């Protein structure tokens, strides 16, 4: 079960993974994008990593979280219920839709996204029960503190 997976992952591993996300975020910023980087972890291994690409691809849907979900989907398929998404920013509502659709059970992020964050904004899509039943249980979200 995923509960065992996330509970078995030591805090230093989350910090290590967040450092990778921060490196991706710096790369994104150097290309004129928002400074966001994301990973998808499965069984304590990195399945996919991505950086924000909205400006470089001229596509508003190319948030780091969307990009990493697209990459991971090619590897592990639609059901990502055993995966953990780690990101430098709290996923927005658009990204939260994709996270719930793919049943990602856990999201770990560093910085909150004001107003449009998926777990702390006006539309808490990550944690809401008001979604299609086939999307499964609400996502459990953790904010890493510095």
Automatic annotation (TrEMBL):
Coiled coil: none annotated. Residues 12-120 form the CMP/dCMP-type deaminase domain. It comes from the Bacteria. InterPro entries: APOBEC/CMP_deaminase_Zn-bd, CMP_dCMP_dom, Cytidine_deaminase-like. Keywords: Metal-binding, Zinc. One of its GO terms (molecular function) is zinc ion binding. This is Nucleoside deaminase.
């Amino acid at each position: 079960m995923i509960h065992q997976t996330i509970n078995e992952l030591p805090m230093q591993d989350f910090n290590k993974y967040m450092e990778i996300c921060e490196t991706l975020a710096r790369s994104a910023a150097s290309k004129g994008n928002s400074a966001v980087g994301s990973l998808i972890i499965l069984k304590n291994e990195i399945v996919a990593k991505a950086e924000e690409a909205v400006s470089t691809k001229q596509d508003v849907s190319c948030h780091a979280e969307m990009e990493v979900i697209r990459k991971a989907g090619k590897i592990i398929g639609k059901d990502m219920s055993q995966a953990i998404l780690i990101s430098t920013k709290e996923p927005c509502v658009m990204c939260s839709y994709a996270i719930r659709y793919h049943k990602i059970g856990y999201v770990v992020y560093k910085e909150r996204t004001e107003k449009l964050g998926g777990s702390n904004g006006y539309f808490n899509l990550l944690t809401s029960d008001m979604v299609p039943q086939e999307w499964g249980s609400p996502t459990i979200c953790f904010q890493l503190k510095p």
